[in-house]
Write a structure and sequence with these properties.
With 134 residues, this protein is of the alpha/beta class. It is built from five helices and five strands; from the N terminus they run βαβαβαβαβα. The two termini are 21 Å apart.
Length: 134
């Protein structure tokens, strides 16, 4: 199904609309087109509705009750059915770190709050460049 994937943009997932909007604006300013979703639940629904093949997923867990290791594993499993294995950047609070220590595999980069919008955009930019080099 990946060959027919209509959307190969990186995925920005954040339940908090302000965080999502600020990071989206910064990424667009840097010339990076991303698809945004308002949380893990909405991302899973989008995956069920249409083929997606993001090279990278940035997930801000703040305020998202569905941003759990189990549900993120499910999201990645849905993508894996279509041979899509994105890099995963997880932005978590300091008290959530332990819950994500054994997060979904080696392709996960765990980021701890606080991070500025500029720092997050730079990390996304760097990770996309790494993926493009492989």
């Amino acid at each position: 199904m990946v060959a027919n994937a209509s959307d190969k943009r990186p995925l920005l997932i954040a339940a908090d609309w302000q965080s999502r909007a600020l990071l989206l604006a910064e990424l667009q300013e840097r010339g990076i087109e991303v698809r945004t979703e308002a949380g893990v639940r909405w991302t899973v629904k989008a995956l069920m509705a249409e083929p997606l093949a993001p090279p990278l997923i940035f997930l801000d867990t703040h305020g998202d009750p569905d941003a759990t290791p189990e549900k993120v594993e499910r999201l990645l499993a849905i993508l894996a059915e279509d041979n899509v294995t994105p890099a995963l950047l997880l932005l978590v609070g300091v008290f959530e770190q332990g819950m994500w220590q054994e997060a979904p595999g080696a392709r996960v980069t765990l980021l701890t709050r606080p991070k500025t919008v500029g720092e997050m955009a730079r990390l996304i930019e760097e990770k996309l460049a790494e993926r493009a080099d492989h």
